[in-house]
Amino acid sequence: MLLEGRRALVTGGSSGIGRATALRLGEEGARVAVNYRSERERADAEAVAARIDPAGARAYAVQADVRVEVEVVRMVEECRERLGGLDLLVNNAGIESQAPTLEMSLEVWEEVLRTNLTGAFLCLREAGRLMAAERRGVIINISSVHEFIPWPGYAHYCASKGGLKLLTETVAQEWAPLGIRVLAIAPGAIATRINSALLDDPEALREVEAEIPLGRLGQPEEIAAAVVWAASEEAAYLTGTTLVVDGGMSTYPRFS
Ligand code: NAD
Hints:
Layout: E1 7-10, H1 16-27, E2 31-36, H2 39-52, E3 59-63, H3 69-83, E4 88-91, H4 106-134, E5 137-142, H5 155-175, E6 180-187, H6 196-199, H7 202-210, H8 220-231, E7 242-245
Parallel strand pairs: 1-2, 1-4, 2-3, 4-5, 5-6, 6-7
The chain binds nicotinamide-adenine-dinucleotide.
The site of nicotinamide-adenine-dinucleotide has 28 residues, from α1 and α4.
């Protein structure tokens, strides 16, 4: 097991990549706090925690809307009380919506930035304070290939993920002397509910698959595997960078 005894927090752990990551961290021996946003996601998050450890000693579900500072502070404080600290934060919570920029309201813009970028900052800062006290820790920000590939109709999403890239790189520099590694993992197109419209549209799905040299969408477990490696001592020299896990999508096969 690569992460025996590590104390981990996964935001947005009730579904998709967060769920697969929490489960895999549990399999690798970590103790896991499974974050969920609201009452609507509670049962799913509790089911993830129960699958990791039915007895509840190694995993628990914890509510916090990452957009809300007091909730994030409380969640990380609960990690300190229940896990004794944090060795790993997976900043995974995120949303996506389509809106042509000429018609994009401030509300829609702020909703995405507040969740994907400000939420990640709040969790990173609070977890970082705990980690700094122990002079060790790993923070993994789940960004996207859209931290560097533009995506018309998704300016807010691209801005949030591009912002996350430089947040990652800057804080990696700041916190390296504290023994804290900070990096990003950029998934390509992954089969989760964030892509449910795509998964329900065979023609659009074929078009996206044509953009991917490996010819298929990725599975959430394939991102979880990258998280486990990046969090482990095997990746002790990795910080301030983005690991792209995209089936080759960012080699732009259409142009070759
Ligand atoms: P998903 O919708 O299953 O997961 C997103 C999770 O974030 C959900 O559990 C949701 O409840 C949670 N969340 C949203 N707002 C929150 C908030 N304010 N507070 C706490 N939790 C909140 O989709 P996913 O594909 O698993 O997405 C996970 C991450 O991966 C996101 O950051 C997304 O941008 C990123 N990503 C996904 C893909 C993809 O193709 N699926 C590609 C690149 C990046």
